What does this fold into?
Amino acid sequence: MKYLSYNYKARLIFLVLFVVLFPIISKAQQAKQINANTPYEFSSGSVAYTYLNGGTVVPALSADQGVSSMLPIGFPFQLGCDFYSDFYASSNGTLSFNNPFIDPLNGNYILSLSRYTNLTLLAPLWDDLSGEGGVFSYKTTGVVPNRIFIAEWKNWKWYYNATSAVISFQIKLYEGSNTIEYVYNQEPTPNTTSVSASIGIFNGNILNTEAKQLWLNNSSKNPVASINFTDTITIRPASGQVYRFTHKDNDTSCKTASMAKK
It folds into this structure.
């Protein structure tokens, strides 16, 4: 009888402790998951595509393999925990901040190479594209503190051996909110059968405790974004398709990441 009473009390104590401590354990696990993943929220939508008018043209990108020099964004833009005022663009559908990047071979192993340790990459359509016959331009619109930077790859070939323009696409960076948007427009020529693109963001900056990234699993109306790298996109996003990455980092998480590196 004493044993049954003791067993009952032990179980009761365990139950009380479980009820009290479970929320704490859950919060700790949730925080761990947030820290392990990229600090961006993904969403999708649609708009009427508008070609960029009056932007600064970069002739170097109207080529099969072209990369720009350092160019101005027009305002400080935050990616992860760092702010950037300049960018580099490539003919292969990428925009980078720390260093020029032109690699046409989109792959997880490319991102893992030591020479790209400090790579910060926006990839609205990363593949072996060609800007021959197309125009890359950029422009900053609006007034402080709500300016918008727009970069456009107009009339681009996907794959590089396409006979004419396959797709146009834009990156939009929003001052203040630090939101990133990719917007697309299908052009008359279908893409070739060799395509295999990646769409997403990658932040391998050494300030952070680990690389932070989000990649889309397809180019549909409502794709799934995750930290799993994808290089199998073969279908053009619809005209007016928008993929949006909303910045979620805060001063506390950035300071924590910085302290972890010291």
Summary: The two ends are 59 Å apart (CA to CA).
